[in-house]
Amino acid sequence: MKNKNKIFKRIFVVGIVCAILGCILYLQDGYSMDSVAKNALNSTSTVIVKEEPSATLFQPNQKTETGLIFYPGGKVEYQAYAPLMQDLAEKGIYCVLVKMPLNLAVFDINAAESYIQTTKDISNWYIGGHSLGGAMAAKYADQHPHDLKGLLLLGAYSTQDLSDTNLSCLAIYGSHDHIMNRNHWHKYRHDLPENTIIKIIKGGNHSQFGSYGLQKNDGKATISPVKQQHETAKEAIKFMYIKKH
């Protein structure tokens, strides 16, 4: 009996070690922010950037009641989305760029909750995300529809049924996106709110919503990351300012 227990313990330990090693190898295949993203972490004359343990905040100098909580894509260093957040904040959107455990939003789906509850100046909250982050943002929206005005999906789709909510939704993806599963996108499209706005960025791909280089298996964009992010910000600003009333 003792020998059997020893064998089981050894198998258990080996299994744990293999799982840890597998996780490390998986995460090593991630994406780091580039120099453009690092520069976007500096405050400007119009945006105050504040780094906190669980998020980076982009606060407009002008008074605003509209905020966006943003979940990063899977295995992407979260601050790779700093340029997009800067773009939005310059136009008056208070942005919370969330840091996820192991760079995977699936491990902290409810990260938005504390910011919604404690940031008293913001009365019009939106949640959004890129790729896996968008899917998890949609899951949060499904669970907390009354706390939000709407949902922003970048290269992402929702597997949650949001069709019976009062949420507004903007879904954006690039014409050269080879990462987002188009079959799944069309399959779950009917689960989005009826008033969902869909925008396709011509020449854009999956990777360029952030600033972390070209993602493996993605299509090659024919526009620059700056142009793709500017177009994304333009559509998002229009969406949030129109829908907040």
TrEMBL record:
<dbReference type="InterPro" id="IPR029059">
    <property type="entry name" value="AB_hydrolase_5"/>
</dbReference>
<feature type="domain" description="Alpha/beta hydrolase fold-5">
    <location>
        <begin position="67"/>
        <end position="229"/>
    </location>
</feature>
<keyword id="KW-1133">Transmembrane helix</keyword>
<keyword id="KW-0472">Membrane</keyword>
<dbReference type="Pfam" id="PF12695">
    <property type="entry name" value="Abhydrolase_5"/>
</dbReference>
<dbReference type="GO" id="GO:0016787">
    <property type="term" value="F:hydrolase activity"/>
</dbReference>
<protein>
    <submittedName>
        <fullName>Alpha/beta fold hydrolase</fullName>
    </submittedName>
</protein>
<feature type="transmembrane region" description="Helical">
    <location>
        <begin position="7"/>
        <end position="27"/>
    </location>
</feature>
<keyword id="KW-0378">Hydrolase</keyword>
<keyword id="KW-0812">Transmembrane</keyword>
<dbReference type="InterPro" id="IPR029058">
    <property type="entry name" value="AB_hydrolase_fold"/>
</dbReference>
